């Protein structure tokens, strides 16, 4: 009996020594801030990255761009890499939240499509504040079991035959921009906010509930709460490939919201070189091809990586067809005044939604 | 003199603690509520009363405030209707082991995390969920209930969360009523209803008032239950305030809305104060 206790104690001690030792030996640990389940936290990718560089990666998550900016503002010197939608990169740079990245030595940067690498939303005064990572569109996805034929118009969200079966993201800017697409307005500078207000109010009988994260979206679809719901192109392919949900992403004839996501390095970064190594790995074709084929991803900004996808991949077929993406409007930076108006419009609309 | 020093040394820690945990954060929020922007990073901020004016200029804020107060009043009333009889039975009719067991059952929900409780309600309430399945199994052909993402679903979740407060506060004041008083009333010919409304309810009023405020105040500011159970119908002043802090990053407006809500609650408390004073 005594021997057993002793052995138990002994093995516990060894475990502690191993754990402590492990954390001392490991070279470095970087902290990444991103949406949950958005590529950077794939466990196989982190293993692959650790094998190549010896660097450990830990994550912290956000549920809205504003939350991400808040986390950067209130936790300086905590994060090494942050994902920023390029529409917000300029604001983050101006506020002094992120640093200019010296991309020399990041070998994969050379393979990025020049138009995205040098996108004026990411590059200011010749300085790179965000490395173009992936791009995609926001419109909506359908549960195929609830549709005979896939719709080709954004008006499906307003179709009375799906009353009470629509999922919508509780985000002011996205809501207003989707209505702007439906009305043929400029998403970055809508000409008629009153028409948008009426269009959004017409959603009252349609919306089942609001979703705020990809995980929540998948749960609502599998619990059969939605027939169709607003969604992001990369997430839709993930829901299909990784979670086996009967989901189809729709690129409406009226157009969709385009976005370009970049990876940035916060000001006062604790591990700059490790952060750059991680960003370089994130745009590596080895990572991207596996991510898209086995899990599901938006379209890589790395042209070489996209060309290495199987010929029938959604990201090669749909998004290389210039006719289909002709109506996609890319999200740009937004004036604070307009953003405030949009936020207020959305809150007023949500009040109107109450029975 | 010595006694005064003793009293002072005894109460100082409590007041220091209150100042540190309540006054300090509250005054920080009061300070924010008069700023034009959040003073973090390289932002220029100035003093303004605009955040308070916004509330009065945009009709939908007061509409949501009213909606939240209505929710608070409804949840409190339902809790009172369910909790008071429960407390009465526990205090005056049930004795011994059964009482202990029942108390345990009442406190049990407090042992689990509030978020977990609400998520389990979503499993029970949703279409083809546990509730719908059981009802259709008992009474075939009832069809879908469609309770999820409705106002009643929010009521259900909130009543479940806050009912124990009402039972416990009412129990304490009913338990303190001397049984001889009730016997005296009975011997003088008072009926059951007379005893209830002319004796027990007035004597238990401190517990009822305390329980009501313990429930009403958190419910008007609640945001988690409306968001998860209410769906499209889950927008209240609490969720709008939460939006200002998490989604919109407009802390000054969020703070101003919170202080307006607090002011209204204080007004209601003052309205009740004659009643509370009479209780003493």
TrEMBL record, chain B:
GO BP term, pick one: transmembrane transport
Record's bilayer topology term: Multi-pass membrane protein
Span of domain ABC transmembrane type-1: 65-270
Subcellular location: Cell membrane
Keyword Manganese belongs to the record: no
CDD domains recorded: TM_PBP2
Entries under InterPro entries matching the protein: MetI-like, MetI-like_sf
GO cellular component, one term: plasma membrane
Keyword entries, A-Z: Cell membrane, Membrane, Transmembrane, Transmembrane helix, Transport
Ranges that cross the membrane: 7-32, 71-90, 102-124, 149-174, 195-220, 253-276
Predominant subcellular localization, coarse grouping: membrane
Family membership noted in the UniProt record: Belongs to the binding-protein-dependent transport system permease family. CysTW subfamily.
PANTHER family attached to this UniProt entry: INNER MEMBRANE ABC TRANSPORTER PERMEASE PROTEIN YDCU-RELATED, INNER MEMBRANE ABC TRANSPORTER PERMEASE PROTEIN YDCU-RELATED-RELATED
Name by which UniProt lists this protein: Peptide ABC transporter permease
Organism of derivation: SAR324 cluster bacterium
Species lineage: Bacteria, Deltaproteobacteria, SAR324 cluster
